[in-house]
Amino acid sequence: MIPMPSGLTLILSHRGRETRFTCEVRGALTEIQPIQWVNGKLRLLDQTRLPQEQVTLDIDHYPEAVAAIRDMRVRGAPAIGVTAGYAMALAARDIHAASRPQFLSQLRQAGEVIAAARPTAVNLAWAVRRMLQVAQLALEGEDIYARLLGEAQRIHQEDIAINRRMGAAGQDLIPDGGGVLTHCNTGALATAGYGTALGVIRASWEAGHRFRVFNTETRPWLQGARLTSWEFQQLGIPATLLADSAAGMLMRQGQISCVITGADRIAANGDTANKIGTYALAVLAKENGLPFYIAAPTSTIDLSLASGDAIQIEQRPEQEMTHFQGKPVAPAGVHAINPAFDVTPHRYISGIVTEAGVARPPYLESLKLAVEDRRG
Ligand code: MRU
After folding, report:
1. Average pLDDT over residues 174-178
2. Which terminus, N or C, of the chain has the lesser number of Cβ atoms within 10 Å?
3. Relative to the CA of 274, which ligand 1 atom is closest?
4. pLDDT for residue 10
5. Same domain, 245 and 317
6. Residue 138 has pLDDT above 70, yes or no
7. How confident is the model at residue 285 (pLDDT cuts 50, 70, 90)?
8. Alpha-carbon gap, residue 206 to 193, rounded angstroms
9. Ligand 1 in contact with 186 (CB < 6 A)?
10. Helix 100-115 and helix 77-94: axis angle, to 10°?
11. Does ligand 1 have an atom closer than 6 angstroms to the CB of 262?
12. 365 CA to middle of ligand 1, Å?
């Protein structure tokens, strides 16, 4: 169930055809579910249409899932990892190969396309790798599609549980009576449910701590204004929206006591790629003597990269900067750069919350321990 304040319209979309339902909700709102598996199809809550409309997309072939990731209909590192898991199951269902090696080769090709949909979040490649390993281990004559679907559902469920563990691990980082600032959207919508940085804020609030919450609008996609503000409203947590560029002033005024964001990829030394603007917030936090935290599952840690210099940063179309909702906001012909992420050097990061606890510097040691904890 998707939470539906009365008066809104639910739109189910399948291959461009939309069916509209008017909805009235009585009683408590249910948890936000951005990703579901329904009747053999992947159902995504289309995040480009929120908060005005709640539209779901039903997907039954993996290229549609790749397009949904690329076009930001589903976004946020853990959420696109979960989507990638289901996309691999959909790909397996469509393969008609004469032999097992042929099947695995075609599945590998699909995996490459899925992993390349967005390059920065490591969760995509991580999920594809995990699904390929399961396919390779399947027994002769076994229904590999069923096995892969089961694995995708496990990744999905695990992510929710991991987020709750992260919330519990990080909830005491936010000082009572203070103010916490977060960036982009890291809530249920960016994950399988509950959230990473937003999950920590939520866990702290649910544990009875009281503090002020600030969230940036997050130019140019406005994940903060559109999605984070909406999620805080659904949760009943009062939150104040600010322009990205207002953060420094609020810190200087003493309104903010700590910053917590998510991550798309964390290198072995703790350097962290996250939504563009995160680096600026981390530098401002240090200048103002405030702790700056990251919250991310261990699947976001990429121990194969020594530092953040090796993280590939996704460059998105210029038009996302020069236009807003299809209308130009800059003079015709102007050029723009639109990096989707930046890298915050580890020296600015006070702690990294994972499901294994709060990793502290030196990250070379603490992140390795966190990842080993996952592998058990
Ligand atoms: O471009 P997006 O919206 O996918 O970027 C999302 C972020 O940068 C999040 O902070 C990150 O994925 C962590 S989400 C739990």
Report:
1. 97
2. C
3. 8
4. 52
5. yes
6. yes
7. very high
8. 16
9. yes
10. 150
11. yes
12. 25
